[in-house]
Amino acid sequence: MSNSTFLGMVLLPLLALSALLGLMLYQDHLSTLPPEGLTQAQQAATEQALLRDVRALLEVHFDGEVKPEVLFRGQLSGMSGSLKDRYTSVLFPVEATKLSEESAGAYGGLGVTVTPNNDGTLTISRIAPESPALGAGFKMGDRIVGMRDISAGKDAISFVGYVGDKTKLMRGPSGTTIEVMIERADDKKTILVERGLVPIHSVQGTRMVDEEHKVGYLRLNQFNSNSPEQLLEAIEKLRALGARRLILDLRDNGGGLLNTAVEIADMFIAEEDKVVVSTKASQAKLERLKELKIEPDLESRGRVMKTQDDEAQIDMPTVVLMNSRSASASEVLAGALQDYNLVLILGTPSYGKGVVQRPFPVPADPRYMVKITIATYFTPLGNNLHRATPNGPGGITPDVIYPMSTEQESQMIQRFNIQAYELPAEGESFPNEEDQAAWAAADPQIDAAIKLLLGERIEVPVHAGGKVPAALDETDTEPDGEPEE
Which end of the chain has the lower number of beta carbons within 10 A, N or C? Predict the structure, then answer.
């Protein structure tokens, strides 16, 4: 008998046995799959077991690094991501804290914007008004060469790694202390500064842009709980300067609190009980809640938000500026004012976010939040502003389409970042040439808005659009097109 014949006689029965065992194991596996008709508790237990087993298999068998915290984040993020809604997501503690701070209108930290240098140090390029950094004597142009978190008992950090790691050290609970080593000209010094609540000024850049024709300007960069009060203060300041016409800048305003947008719209509308916005959930959600025997909340049933008085606190002729990064609450405000023919809108079509989000704390650990799309909103005339696809219909269409070039938009964003902070004292210049050039550059949309307010003819340019990178900021509040209710 040849060797090959002998091996065949031995291997064939073994292969058959292996196939039989494999079939038995597979059938046994099928018997362990979640059967239909399970109770809710049984289904939950089965799902937990599956998640546990998949995680264990990955940890044992994956050929590469496996970090438990990465698997955990992926598990939570994957659940919300599976709904295919770009606005529904899990917020981890740092993100949840940032959201809460922005909605409240303040954050804990120093209140500076920094520019990274090639040697790993940071240059303070801007300082927030009413901030701990301003009170501690920091100046624009100071070079940060080291930091130490006194309250946490940490050693001075090494200036290697990501700039974001260094800016995170500036943030922290109010009342905690940080030691900052700086260089100023040829002088080196160490400053102990206590972190505090840094107000987020949602109304910025308030000034007269045409004193001869009494045109005032202000920018609303987000909708937080302090915005209505700050807006009225800015309006009074402009009136004191002689303003009789207004430019309201909503460019790059990613939204914020829906109630705040309604309150601000009420400042322009001189009638009580007028609809500003309405919300309603999808039929799929309503049917699901019915099956779960859960009473729909107000937004889901259909909420109508109206004006509360018959006084227009802002009664100047107004031009509103918008662009493709104006979203959500910005569109609620602009949509109401446009529907009632109270303003002229100039710029480019807005982002098109016509759905409402609400952050829900996770009961098992309230440091986590789940930001969930809960309903769709509609303008007073019933228009749905939501743009379901990037090139689909939706958003606010300005009364006057007036595009800007990529360079002009870049300079505009830099000016927005500058005017959120203390400007150099009279006779002083900015610590870098880029800020100096951006601040001096013309804003063609503001210029066009002035002409509209004066009834003059304007010529609309034709430009290719383009996205501009966000600034490096300790607050990291660059609008992202995903604002919250």
Answer: N
Is pLDDT above 90 for 236? Answer: yes
Q: In this predicted structure, which of 26-30, 107-111, 278-282 has the lowest mean pLDDT?
A: 26-30
Say yes or no to pLDDT of 483 above 50. Answer: no
Q: State how far the Cα of 72 lies from the Cα of 365, in Å rounded to an integer.
A: 14
Q: Return the bridge partners of 256, or none.
A: 223
Burial class (CB in 10 A: 0-12, 13-18, 19+), 238: buried
Q: Which domains does the chain have, with CATH numbers?
A: 109-197 (2.30.42.10), 203-453 (3.90.226.10)
Match 């460019």 to its residue by tokens.
251
The DSSP result for 261-288, as a single string, is HHHHHHHH--STT-EEEEEE--HHHHHH
357, 85 Cβ separation under 8 angstroms? no
CA–chain centroid gap for 280, Å, is 23
Count Cβ atoms below 10 Å from residue 80 Cβ, excluding itself: 16
Q: How confident is the model at residue 36 (pLDDT cuts 50, 70, 90)?
A: low
Helix (H) or strand (E) holding 416: helix 406-419
Instruction: Tell me how far apart the alpha carbons of residues 465 and 458 are, in angstroms, rounded to a whole number.
Output: 20
Report, as an integer, the average pLDDT of 197-225.
Answer: 92
| Numbers of helices and strands, H then E, in the chain | 14, 18
- Residues 169-198: pLDDT tens digits? 787 788 888 888 889 888 888 889 898 888
CB of 423 closer than 8 Å to CB of 433: no
- Determine which of 17-31, 135-149, 249-263, 264-278 has the lowest per-residue pLDDT on average: 17-31
Backbone angles phi, psi at 56, to 5 degrees: -65, -40
Report the range of poorest mean pLDDT among 107-121, 301-315, 462-476: 462-476
pTM (2 d.p.): 0.74
- Burial track 414-443 (b if 16+ CB lie within 10 A, e otherwise): bbbbbbbbbebeeeeebbeeebeebbeeeb
Beta strands in 318-437 (DSSP E): 318-322, 344-347, 355-362, 365-378, 400-401
The pair of structure tokens assigned to 64 is 């590469």
Q: Which two tokens stand for residue 435?
A: 């800020």
Number of neighbours of residue 390 by Cβ within 10 angstroms: 6
Q: Which stretch of DSSP H or E encloses residue 112? A: strand 112-116
Task: Take residue 417 and report the two structure tokens written for it.
Answer: 């970042």
Per DSSP bridges, beta strands 215-220 and 245-249 are parallel
Residue 91, C-beta contacts closer than 8 angstroms, at least 6 positions apart = 99, 359, 368, 369, 370, 371
Tokens encoding 310: 């018959």
- In this model, does residue 403 exceed pLDDT 90? yes
